[in-house]
Write a structure and sequence with these properties.
five-stranded parallel β-sheet; 48% helix; Rossmann fold; 547 residues; alpha/beta; 12 strands
């Protein structure tokens, strides 16, 4: 004997035939009658009622409003099947749809009709006589195997027609995935989850892709330090909280910032790209970030209307940041995998690319994305020394000795100084070695500017009477003499640095000829060595007394 529950809109004679059975009146308000709101009405009003009732056969009228082709009854049937968490056991009960037309006709009218061809969904004429045949038929709940094979794998639910954009869907889905994975529960992520849990489309995705509700730690706590800035138009909708949790859990010495100063700020709404550039520039000056996590599409009202790659707002902001300071390491966030977009991003010097998981990506994709993000952040923090190199380069190139001198040697010197940052900011192998060689070349050019090499000695181009020819014309000896006679610096303060630089250069050129460099040899220079040698070069040029 079936325990029957009927959901109706006062539009079926079965209401009078089942006086002792539980009845649910489906009566949404005018405001509820659109795709997303009807989902909310079903999830918040009807599902809780079903949870309280006892039944093993569910009967639903196909239309549940004044519009006889709304097919809200089918929408409700989908919601029930996809509400395993809220309706344990009940979500798999047999369902009978009452209708004035057959299943094939319904399927031609609406894609929702696919549910009528899944297991344990039946259709009956909307009459007492037609329904009688179901009363004595033995009907069983779907098994888990049947649920997966004969329901989930046979349906396909599209996003609502009035939904904002693919960009919005991807962000909401990715925030949901990442917040579950990281155990983030804030007001913003909860609001996003409420949307996921009520909207039919998202309920379908959760069931189809088996989102696992568990948290994970992706790396041991890192001692790397630095400032990280997130720029994302969906930041206040959950990304700020998700990324903050990831950063603070794994990088204890790192400061995390967002573009918004307050949680309710709408910096990306109804602004143009120039206004956004000003906001980004102001934030960069305020916090001096080492790594920026940058969303690709920041201005939906602009990005949704254009198709040219170079017009995408995130690419424009990327270029603006690189113009301000190319040493800032930028990681791009986006759902796009367009090769033209990726080519443009890498051509503009991004550190890497993190794909926001679209609804077609499985749970594992989120784990992989977080693992990749971890690696890129570590790499970005490792490269924060480039900010020091960039500043040294800019400060050096602005020195009067270089800007006021038209000698060809000085022109070549400027080129080599410029190359130091470019070498280190590239992905070339052994970049520290090549940067060291560029610095060494700069010292050689300074020597060439002041001295003439002759056989086993060096002669001053303009010889003061009190300076003898240099009988030791090694690069180190020549630059020490320039420091002594042409600057206000103490030459002995640079002796140790110069010895290490010369030994490192000689080992790079002649790795088997260590000679007297055993105690000073730097086989593999690092960022600290490069910064020290570059700072030495800056101090020497800054202190030169004449050109």
């Amino acid at each position: 004997m079936h325990e029957i529950l009927l959901v109706h809109h006062d539009n079926t004679p079965l209401k009078k035939k089942l006086p002792n059975s539980p009845l649910i009146l489906f009566s949404p308000s005018i405001d509820d009658l659109n795709d997303s709101d009807i989902d909310a009405y079903i999830s918040k009003e009807i599902i809780p009622q079903l949870k309280e009732e006892e039944f093993n056969l569910l009967v639903i009228k196909d239309s549940l409003s004044e519009n006889y082709i709304d097919f809200y009854g089918l929408v409700l049937a989908y919601h029930i099947r996809l509400s395993a968490k809220d309706l344990p056991k009940k979500y798999c009960v047999p369902i009978v749809i009452l209708s004035e037309v057959d299943s094939y006709t319904i399927n031609k009218i609406t894609p929702l009709g696919k549910i009528l061809f899944t297991k344990n969904i039946f259709i009956s004429k909307n009459s007492i006589e037609a329904f009688e045949e179901f009363k004595n038929i033995e009907l069983k709940n779907l098994s888990q195997e049947e649920y997966r094979n004969d329901f989930i794998n046979k349906i396909d639910i599209d996003p609502p027609k009035d939904y904002l954009s693919h960009h919005s869907i991807t962000n909401e889905w990715a925030i949901y995935q990442w917040s579950h994975l990281l155990g983030v529960n804030t007001e913003a992520t909860q609001a996003n989850e409420d949307k996921i849990n009520t909207m039919l489309y998202f309920k379908y995705l959760v069931n189809k892709y088996n989102l696992e509700e568990k948290t994970e730690k992706f790396n041991k706590e890192s001692d790397k330090s630095g400032n990280i800035l997130l720029i994302d138009d969906k930041g206040v909708e959950g990304w700020n909280d998700v990324i903050r949790k990831f950063i603070e859990s794994n990088y204890k010495s790192t400061e995390f910032f967002t573009l918004e100063e307050k949680a309710d700020e709408q910096l990306f709404k109804d602004v143009d790209i120039e206004e956004l550039k000003l906001s980004v520039e102001s934030k960069i000056k305020a916090i001096d970030p080492d790594v920026i996590l940058l969303d690709l599409r920041l201005l939906e009202h602009i990005d949704n209307k254009q198709e040219k790659v170079l017009e995408i707002s995130g690419i424009k902001i990327l270029k603006h940041i690189k113009k301000l300071n190319p040493s800032i390491q930028i990681i791009i966030f986006s759902a796009s995998t367009d090769s033209l977009i990726l080519d443009e991003l890498y051509a503009n010097g991004i550190l890497g690319y993190i794909k926001k998981d679209s609804p077609t990506n499985k749970y594992l994709a989120s784990k992989n994305s977080l693992t990749k993000l971890d690696k890129l952040i570590k790499k970005g923090l490792d490269r924060k020394y480039l900010k020091t190199i960039w500043k040294l380069q800019q400060d050096t190139l602005q020195l009067p000795f270089l800007t006021n001198n038209t000698d060809p040697i000085i022109f070549e010197l400027r080129k080599n100084i410029t190359s130091i940052f470019d070498i280190l900011n590239s992905n070339m192998p052994n970049s520290f070695v090549y940067a060291m060689l560029a610095i060494f070349k700069c010292l050689e050019l300074l020597n060439n500017f002041y001295l003439i090499d002759e056989y086993q000695k060096a002669t001053w181009k303009v010889k003061p009477e009190d300076i003898d020819n240099l009988t030791d014309n090694s690069t180190k000896n020549k630059i020490l003499n320039i420091i002594e006679h042409k600057t206000t610096l103490e030459a002995n303060e640079f002796d140790n640095l110069l010895v290490k630089l010369v030994c490192s250069r000689n080992y790079a050129i002649h790795p088997k000829e260590k000679k007297s460099c055993r105690d000073f040899l730097v086989k593999e220079p690092n960022d600290g060595h490069i910064a020290s040698w570059f700072e030495m070069l800056f101090d020497i040029i800054k202190s030169l007394k004449e050109g």
